[in-house]
Amino acid sequence: MSFATRRAAITSISALSAAALYYHTHQTSKPKTMLPSYEATFSVPLECDACINDIKGALSKVDGITSTTFSLPHRLISITSTTPPSTLISTIQSTGRDAILRGSGTPNSAAVCILEIPPSSSSSSPFTPPNSNSNSNSTPPRSKSSQNINSPVRGLARLITLSEKLTLLDLTLTAVPTGRYTISIRKTGDISRGKASLGSIYKGENGDREGELGVVSIDEQGRGNLVVEIGGWRVWELVGRGMCVERIDAHGAAEVVVVGVVARSAGVWENEKVVCGCSGKTVWEEREEMVGKGMV
């Protein structure tokens, strides 16, 4: 995303090594899955040891976490696990504290895709897929999400390469109609005309990859989450490609709802920004803005 590349005024995270005595490391049980683990760092407004203990207690109930490291002076948490980022964030937030994903995986192994209503369909109802007839019996139920419906953003997909032939997809949709949706990778990253400009489903340079990534179900609150392993893909193969989310109707036909472009995101310890050099906003102010747009 563009804000991830802005020049920033920061307190260097390299100072963390010099502040080792302020760290609290918490070992948990071994993950029950056989997925490769990865490290992710989160900014969290830690104030005291009680904050750390609250979060430790919440994370101890989550499967797949092998260790957590806390830095009180830098308000950072590092988690090594096989657990999707969205689960880690919601777990931390369940303690009443916010959380921002600062980096995940090794360099060039992580990507993000902001999913939004296609520009060519911006005049459509935010709760009705483009080209659908609001008077038709096929119109899906309206979602009950409280998200700012003036924003075209409807979700976020995170991708993390866990091994040479395995990538984790963690996708969340908000404020979209109830139903089932397919997610696919497309040949181009041109979203100007929605599906028409994205091209056909991309199956890799040799045509041997699965371009259809999975199906997500949206509940009555207009929210849905898909966490799936996509074998064969590596993040660098997907960067610059389009992602297309389509609603499946009762007859199995698909209708485009949201699209996005896969962009590289920071690996663990690569994002040191505290204040954005362009807007002057802190990471917390940026997060509040993103939440309003449905990006997190």
Please identify the structural class as seen in this structure.
mainly beta
The average pLDDT value, as a whole number, equals 75
How helix-rich are the residues, as a percent range?
Answer: 10-25%
> What spatial form do the alpha-carbon principal axes imply?
globular
The stretches of 5 or more residues where confidence is low (pLDDT under 50) are: 1-33, 122-147, 268-285
Count the E strands: 15
**Rounded Rg:** 20 Å
Strand content: 25-35%
What's the order of the H and E elements? EEEHEEHEEEEEHEEHEEEH
Task: Write up this protein.
- With 296 residues, the protein is mostly beta strands.
- It has 5 helices and 15 strands.
- An 8-stranded antiparallel sheet has the order 11-10-13-14-7-8-9-12. A 5-stranded antiparallel sheet has the order 2-4-5-3-6.
- A hairpin with a 2-residue loop joins strand 8 (153-163) and strand 9 (166-173).
- It is globular, with a radius of gyration of 20 Å.
- Mean pLDDT is 75; it is low at 1-33, 122-147 and 268-285.
Topology:
Layout: E1 8-9, E2 23-27, E3 38-43, H1 49-59, E4 65-71, E5 76-81, H2 85-93, E6 100-104, E7 110-116, E8 153-163, E9 166-173, E10 179-186, H3 195-198, E11 212-218, E12 224-231, H4 235-238, E13 242-248, E14 254-264, E15 275-276, H5 283-293
Antiparallel strand pairs: 1-15, 2-4, 3-5, 3-6, 4-5, 7-8, 7-14, 8-9, 9-12, 10-11, 10-13, 13-14
Summarize the structure.
The chain has five helices and 15 strands. The protein has 296 residues and is mostly beta strands.
Provide tags for this entry.
15 strands, about 300 residues, disordered N terminus, about 15% helix, 8-stranded antiparallel beta sheet, about 35% strand, 5-stranded antiparallel beta sheet, mainly beta, globular
